[in-house]
């Protein structure tokens, strides 16, 4: 972890810039989009700093990088969500969750974690359902299914009881949970009722989630050794 810390300094600085400037959402602009996306751009650089060969040889890392790229596009769309680009942002983040799920893989399967995430996702949708109308009734259902699946795959990688885990797997799991908190806050604030300090909660959990998921792409143990232990 210590060896990766210095590479994340630009991300932390960019995140501080976002919270210090705290540009109003009532007047969207390309500058505000840049400031919002800048921490994600820094995570691109963080992964690219490990080398193209690293990204090519580790498909999970390249998929996480692709997910970060779609995330940045989604962030830009959400700057103009009041102008009708909310669905566009939703689509970009749906693709992000598909890429992250693919990066986390399907082994180990861990059906108990899948059942837990299924219950959580179903409960969230059941609560939101009465507030939804039109195409959002179906779009939100699909989105919750995708992020719930992503959360399952991230959680399944952490086998604490069997001591089959690495800090990168734990990072992915915590990052996925924070991503779900961020998106649930968006849904509550957008469709149900105003959430106090919603913007701070959404962005703080979102940036932390993306950083942890980006960190999960970094292999700290020999991949073959981890497969043997699994």
UniProtKB/TrEMBL annotation:
* Catalytic reactions on record: a 1-O-(1Z-alkenyl)-sn-glycero-3-phosphocholine + H2O = a 2,3-saturated aldehyde + sn-glycerol 3-phosphocholine; a 1-O-(1Z-alkenyl)-sn-glycero-3-phosphoethanolamine + H2O = a 2,3-saturated aldehyde + sn-glycero-3-phosphoethanolamine
Task: Report a single Gene Ontology molecular function.
Answer: alkenylglycerophosphocholine hydrolase activity
Alphabetized UniProt keyword annotations: Membrane, Transmembrane, Transmembrane helix
Q: Any keyword Ligase?
A: no
Give the main location.
Answer: membrane
Q: What does the UniProt entry say about where the protein is found?
A: Membrane
What is this entry's stated membrane topology?
Multi-pass membrane protein
- Pfam families registered for this protein in UniProt: YhhN
Q: Where are the transmembrane segments?
A: 30-49, 61-80, 86-106, 113-132, 138-155, 167-188, 200-218
Cellular component GO terms held in the UniProt record: membrane
Name the EC number(s): 3.3.2.2
The family this protein is said to belong to: Belongs to the TMEM86 family.
Q: Know the name of this protein?
A: lysoplasmalogenase
Organism of derivation: Grantiella picta
């Amino acid at each position: 972890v210590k060896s990766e810390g210095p590479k994340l300094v630009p991300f932390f600085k960019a995140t501080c810039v976002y919270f210090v400037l705290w540009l109003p959402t009532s007047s969207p602009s390309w500058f505000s989009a840049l400031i919002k996306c800048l921490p994600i751009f820094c995570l691109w650089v963080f992964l690219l700093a490990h080398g193209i060969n690293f990204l090519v040889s580790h498909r999970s890392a390249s998929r996480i990088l692709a997910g970060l790229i779609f995330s940045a596009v989604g962030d830009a769309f959400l700057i103009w969500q009041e102008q009708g680009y909310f669905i566009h942002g939703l689509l970009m983040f749906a693709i992000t969750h598909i890429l992250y799920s693919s990066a986390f893989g399907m082994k180990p399967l861990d059906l108990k974690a899948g059942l837990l995430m299924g219950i959580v996702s179903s409960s969230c949708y059941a609560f939101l359902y009465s507030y939804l109308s039109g195409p959002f009734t179906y779009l939100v259902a699909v989105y919750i299914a995708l992020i719930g699946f992503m959360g399952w795959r991230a959680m399944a990688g952490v086998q604490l009881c069997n001591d089959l885990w690495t800090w990168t797997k734990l990072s992915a799991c915590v990052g996925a949970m924070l991503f779900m908190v961020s998106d649930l806050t968006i849904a509550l604030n957008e469709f149900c009722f105003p959430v106090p300090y919603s913007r701070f909660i959404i962005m703080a959990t979102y940036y932390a989630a993306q950083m942890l998921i980006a960190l999960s792409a970094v292999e700290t143990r020999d991949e073959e050794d981890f497969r043997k232990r699994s």
